[in-house]
Automatic annotation (TrEMBL):
Entry-linked PROSITE patterns: TAT
Name of the protein in question: Metallo-beta-lactamase family protein
Example GO molecular function: transferase activity
Ranges for domain Metallo-beta-lactamase: 105-161
Length: 375
């Protein structure tokens, strides 16, 4: 596996999204071919606030064409519905989302994760009417193939359509380590091709600290493990670079620099967050390897906002026993978000418990679904 706005708006977006001079420091030299990356500026509070956020599920494991539209509390849920004859949204074990936020007359568009294959990603982006030309930034939650597998193919298909120096936010150098799947039979789990990204004109932005993305969103940075949640390691990473592929040891955390192979602990995993006016935080966990509760608590900590409007994404509970899942639901009940929208790797056990314990806050998600937060 391998892989026309006002001048003032352009200026600010160029600074914030393309890691311009004053906002980003320490261009990091890579190797071969003089690869360069940037490091995101640390987040300053208060975090950005948006008037409206629309989250579209581009790729996920399920699509139900006859699922009804609905409103859950203040959240509008719009389903994609029945596709035209001869066409279909493609489902796969992967996750990709499109995030459109508005503040006043500003609109920002971000792609978060890229599913398992470019075929599914490119097909679904086209069917959902998402314009690659509108994309202001990319975010990759972590270095697992089911979240980055479609990225390089998306960049190749849209060469010439994407903005120059399009920033790709990642949580750390571990994103680029080659990986093996170890839950069961040991298998190659691929790598993210850094050279292909840079060859496509993408600027890689390392964001281990909480950081603003595209002027509207923010990432939570490294997520501490402070709750009961256990970090599972279904993959292991090979440390080092060969033929330009892999991760640079000196860019890893100190305890991993001298290792050859290390289990994933997902120190580089990012949660993507928005503060929606008069609603609170929307926390998009993507896969929650560090724990969905830990992810939400980290978002609250770095933003200083206690009110959680929505928790959504993969919660990585499918491997866990029912007692652990119940404990997770109990912790979410204590946090008391307005809605909980599980996806991807969450598992049916969580959905069953959630429907029983928090039925008025649960939303079943499908590929193509659109969730609208705010006015």
């Amino acid at each position: 596996m391998s892989q026309g706005s006002e001048a003032s708006r352009v200026s600010r977006r160029d600074i914030l999204c393309t890691c311009g001079a004053a906002m980003f420091s320490s261009l990091l030299a890579g190797a071969p071919g003089s690869i360069k990356s940037a490091r995101a500026a640390a987040l300053n509070t208060p975090v950005p606030e948006v008037d409206r956020l629309a989250v579209r599920v581009v790729t996920d494991s399920y699509h139900l064409a006859i699922a009804p539209n609905m409103k859950v509390g203040e959240v509008e849920v719009v389903r994609f519905g029945m596709p035209p004859a001869g066409k279909s949204l493609l489902e796969e074990f992967g996750l990709a989302m499109h995030l459109e936020s508005k503040r006043g007359d500003e609109t920002r568009n971000v792609l978060l994760d890229f599913g398992f294959t470019p075929e599914a990603l490119n097909n679904n982006i086209a069917m959902l009417g998402i314009s690659p030309r509108s994309v202001d930034a990319l975010i990759l939650s972590h270095g697992h193939y089911d979240h980055f597998g479609g990225l390089v193919g998306f960049l190749k298909q849209n060469r010439g359509k994407l903005r120059a120096n399009l920033p790709l936010y990642v949580g750390g150098e571990e994103t680029f380590c080659t990986r093996e799947w170890t839950a069961g039979k040991v298998e190659d789990f691929g790598y993210l091709d850094r050279n292909a990204l840079l060859g496509a004109g993408v600027k890689i932005v390392f964001a281990p600290n909480p950081s603003v993305v595209a002027d509207h969103a923010f990432t939570a940075g490294t997520i501490p493990t402070t709750s009961f949640e256990k970090v599972l390691a279904p993959t292991r990473m090979t440390v080092g670079v060969k033929d330009g592929i892999g991760c640079y040891p000196d860019k890893l955390p100190a305890e991993k620099q001298t290792a050859k192979v290390v289990p994933d602990d997902f120190q580089h995993e990012l949660a993507t967050c928005f503060s929606v006016k008069n609603r609170g935080l929307v926390v998009i966990t993507s896969c929650s390897h560090r724990g969905v509760v830990n992810s939400v608590k980290r978002a609250v900590e770095v933003s200083g906002i206690d009110k959680v409007h929505a928790v959504m994404g993969g919660f990585h509970l499918a491997p866990h026993k029912v007692d652990y899942v119940r404990e997770t639901v109990a912790a979410l009940k204590e946090i008391n978000p307005d809605v909980v929208i599980p996806m991807h790797c969450t598992g049916e056990t969580f959905i069953e418990v959630m429907q029983k314990e928090m039925p008025d806050k649960f939303v079943r998600s499908y590929a193509g679904s659109l969730y609208i937060f705010g006015t």
